[in-house]
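User: Run a structure prediction on this.
Assistant: Running it now.
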Amino acid sequence: MLRYGIINKSKLSFCIALGLHYLCTTKHILYRMQQKIIILDFGSQTTQLIGRRLRELDTFCEILPYNKFPHDDPSVIGVILSGSPYSVYDPEAFKVDLSEIRGKYPILGICYGAQYMSQLYGGKVEPAGSREYGRANLESFDHENPLFKGFDDNSQVWMSHGDTITAIPEGFHCIASTSKVKYAAYQADGEKLWGVQFHPEVFHSLQGTQLLKNFVVDICGSRQDWSPASFVDTTVAELKEQLGNDRVILGLSGGVDSSVAAVLLHRAIGDSLTCIFVDHGMLRKNEFRDVMNDYKCLGLNVIGVDASAKFFADLAGVTDPEQKRKIIGRDFVEVFNAEAKKQTGAKWLAQGTIYPDRIESLNITGKVIKSHHNVGGLPKEMNLQLCEPLKWLFKDEVRRVGRSMGMPEHLITRHPFPGPGLAVRILGDITPEKVRILQDADDIYIRGLRNYKVKLSGEEARRVLAAGVPADMKNGEIEVSLYDQIWQAGTVLLSTVRSVGVMGDERTYEHPVALRAVTSTDAMTADWAHLPYDFMAQVSNDIINHVKGVNRVCYDISSKPPSTIEWE
């Protein structure tokens, strides 16, 4: 059976996004709300997950650098201090002055945030005898404390730290412990100030969402009045004000992000929007044709450009994944620019950029994790301003917005697909024949996922329904496809490898393919999907029998981290 939403913490990219996305002052906010939670970022990769959980609670939040608290913002109702890759006693560790925050707002420190506050106010933080990473259980906690309202005895939490609080400050008291961590949680006496050494934002903390709800709703007083519909109304109004009667060009990819952005923009400015869909030749099988038909049904003005010959020519002999990305990004801009120039009077370029795109493209060190051509800036010669209506949303939020606008479900539930397409799913150089092999194998895999139905009940059914998967409950059960239960699936061609096989009365010397399927909520972390054995057997058999050039099928059972979702 599949597992859902498994989150692992990593220092894969320490200080991720710090200073990158913090242009969001009041005038930049897409959600005009009277209340907000401020998350002060100390560089943890899971900072974004905290934000995700708060948005799931229909509460707006802003992620800001640890030293950029908006003291003059009357809409702030609470503060969360994030984790960090640093130790609090490191000379380079991020430190913040809390003197104007403590006592004015409820505060929750998570991991590093809890350790920092403990040390700041006179407690003690030391290296743990052994690093504590993984599941733990609250052997004791204060059932009367509002932070733990509704918690079950022995509740599972997720620890991820090499340091531990060995003494809390005077005037503080312990409210939870595990077998290895005495001060798993604490509170300042008579104050709305808490610290927890575990991570409530990850799904391994089974009641982590409950803890965050207790803090945000019960303690801070959130009215939980954000909704996809309110986002649409607010964003449409802002787009009308921002764009006026200007003409806008949108680069479509065929995925849910750019599709939702297109429908949102069309609702705001109508025929002033022109969409361009560039086919680089490395889309899924028949995807260019199918997507163009979908866009026409949505009433969008879409120009399709088949530029596959150019992309294949420029990628000839290139094997490095990052170089492939850069070439495809450059060629995309060139092709797009040439077509855009034909659209006279255009003043804006719109893109379906979402929050994870921006997070993964740059960190505080300035080092690129992986490049995204849609966040790399615009050529000066285009002379267009940039419009990104979804840039603060996570993928599942984009889907919620799409549903609220009545978009077809098959568009909304499409799995994420990399911008460079199958180019980063082919190990080695790119040729039309290798793309053909991968397209055929991938088509069998994806169709198989869509056609294989599974009945779920109880907690598993609840989780799937909570994720927005369309399904009707009958007799306590729902029936959904494997495709709708997983976050992303794809096929990788190991074109640099040839394996010996036996087909008929002779040996073959052909390529293996690797199947990949993961569960996630935001792509920041992911776990491999536990697909049924009979499904795997059938797909493997179908691929080997029907795809010339493949004689072996493997399944990738690595999680992110340490592995990425793509083989890049």
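Residues 487 and 519 are 5 Å apart (CA to CA).
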